[in-house]
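Page 42, continued from yesterday. The earlier attempt failed because a stray header line got pasted into the input along with the sequence. Redoing it now with the clean sequence only.
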Amino acid sequence: MRIEWLDSSRGIAILLVVIFHGFLSCEGIFHEINSRLCCIIVPIFFVISGFLFRNRSLDEFLKSRSRRILIPYFTAQTIVTILAIQFFPDASNRPTDYLIGIFCADVTLPIDHSLADYPLWFLPCLFVAELIFLLSRQKILVSILISMLGTFCPIHLPWGIDIALTSQIFLIAGYFLRNRSLNWKLILLALILIPTAELNLIIDMPNRIYNDPILFFIDGIAGSILIFKLSQLISNRFLNFIGRRTLTILILHVPIFYILENFGLDPTSTLDCWLKILASISIILAIDHLNSRRLFDR
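This time it went through. Structure tokens are written below.
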């Protein structure tokens, strides 16, 4: 049975991701807002994953999550990479980097942004994170130790394996939140803690920039709790609808950005960035509406 407010949480989170990527090259106030979003927009997806996690056999996990995560990743990344090599100079000038990037699944390997559809680094990383969480048997102390190992890992590993290790604290937080009421004491605590994000400067999980690890974990969990509570208060059909199409939006929004920018939208213009974001969401939802089977989400 689906939890509607959790769909709304995913809807809010994926809209924040689209806004973040939409304003990635924009300076000014939205650049500042983007730097604050970093402490929440990736951690919340790991927290949601922990919230929804269920124990199963290793064989069942590998079959189910490969079908839901890895097949969409390799399918989408391969198609976008081939198109990028064909039509975009940056990719056509170094096709080998982009082809290697499909299998490394990391925005920092072998060089920055060698992934044509760079937000998809998250999918193999999520697969590995959930696999580690399954094997660790959801023990708090074990999750904390594994997270510390990932946080201080000196090298960037393919498939974001080191990020998957780091994310275990977020998964264990989500796992225990599902059995806890989001009462106002917990919300007040989260409201008190979230301003510490100002003390931790810029967070960038795909590039392994965590600054103060304690503040990084606190802000990610506190921000997720606040979005969960907000979703319970304002859950509606639109956010639920968006939340059920998270994977499709994650896969398609940046390729659509590329196309719109190629037609003249300026990635440094605030107005053009908003137009790009709204057009991207509209196009994706239109495609989804025309395709009754959906593209990637099930």
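Notes: The chain has a mean pLDDT of 88.
Reminder to self: strip header lines before submitting.
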